[in-house]
Amino acid sequence: MEGPDGALEISPEVMPILEAIHQVLAGGTVEVKVVHRGNPDIFNELKRRVEQVGQEANAINKAAGFYLTATL
Length: 72
Description:
Blueprint (H helix, E strand, L loop, with lengths): L14 H11 L14 H25 L8
């Protein structure tokens, strides 16, 4: 999200990715092409965080005995 308070909009760079996710959730198939790679340190940190949240969600759900966390 970007823009001034009260007028936030989804970044034009992110919108195609969001639309692709919607297609997948609706049963469609998409292709992803990275045109220019970003900062590898930031990329690796974001990847690590996704893996960590998955591990933490699984641990919480296992301890609870049911899905306590939201899933996508």
